[in-house]
Design goal:
Layout: E1 7-10, H1 14-22, E2 29-30, H2 45-63, E3 70-80, E4 83-84, E5 87-88, H3 91-101, E6 105-116, E7 120-132, H4 137-146, E8 152-153, E9 166-170, H5 173-177, H6 181-190
Parallel strand pairs: 1-2, 1-3
Antiparallel strand pairs: 3-4, 3-6, 5-8, 6-7, 7-9
């Protein structure tokens, strides 16, 4: 059986790479798509995630027109109502996000886009509902001191200590980490990607 064209991950997220490896997919390369992630004016969370996933896949695919390949782009957004929560790059932002999420449900959206040989493409959006417990002063202090919030959308990483702050999730766990795996597998298979036995 002939081998697949290479799969390129259009993301610098170590979590997305780890998730793919977890299910036996090893990208041939990982590339920074170098896409501006600033939300457009009045852009809603689900539209933002979908737009950026498609833009990331397209940006890397345009660099690789000489050789056929699959390019996987994804973008994850933590949303509280219609509000897109930022990536927490400082303690103040992380604390503000966590106080907003405390005792509430919120949604996590991940747009997934794949550019395939023959100018074919596929796009989907995953949504997971996450419910935080009401966070006390000690909960906040302990989590902020861990540093796990750094660079994380919404100021938390579910695969770490924040799991102890979450009462329930409804939907894909891997979506909250950064890549809905079942959806991604379905999209790749639908475009003709052959999985190793």
């Amino acid at each position: 059986m002939p081998s697949n064209p290479p799969l390129i991950l259009a993301s610098t997220s170590p979590r997305r790479l780890a998730l793919l490896r977890q299910i036996g997919i090893e990208p041939a390369a990982v590339e920074d798509p170098e896409v501006d992630e600033t939300p457009a004016a009045r852009e809603l969370p689900r539209a933002h995630a979908s737009r950026l996933a498609a833009a990331k896949a397209a940006a890397v695919a345009q660099r690789r027109t000489k050789h056929p390949c699959f390019v996987l782009g994804a973008d994850t957004v933590v949303a509280c109502g219609r509000r897109i929560l930022p990536k927490a790059n400082d303690l103040e932002t992380a604390e503000r996000c966590l106080r907003l999420l405390s005792g509430r449900r919120h949604r996590v959206y991940t747009g997934v886009a794949i550019e395939a040989p023959g100018a074919r493409r596929a796009e989907r959006l995953a949504m997971t509902m996450v419910r935080f417990k009401r966070l006390g002063a000690e909960d906040l202090e302990r989590y902020l001191a861990s540093g796990e919030w750094q660079g994380k959308a919404g100021g938390y990483a579910i695969q770490g200590r924040a799991e102890g702050l979450i009462l329930a999730i409804n939907g894909s766990y891997s979506n909250v980490v950064g890549l809905p795996l079942a959806l991604t597998v379905d999209l790749l298979g639908g475009l003709g990607w052959r999985f190793a036995p």
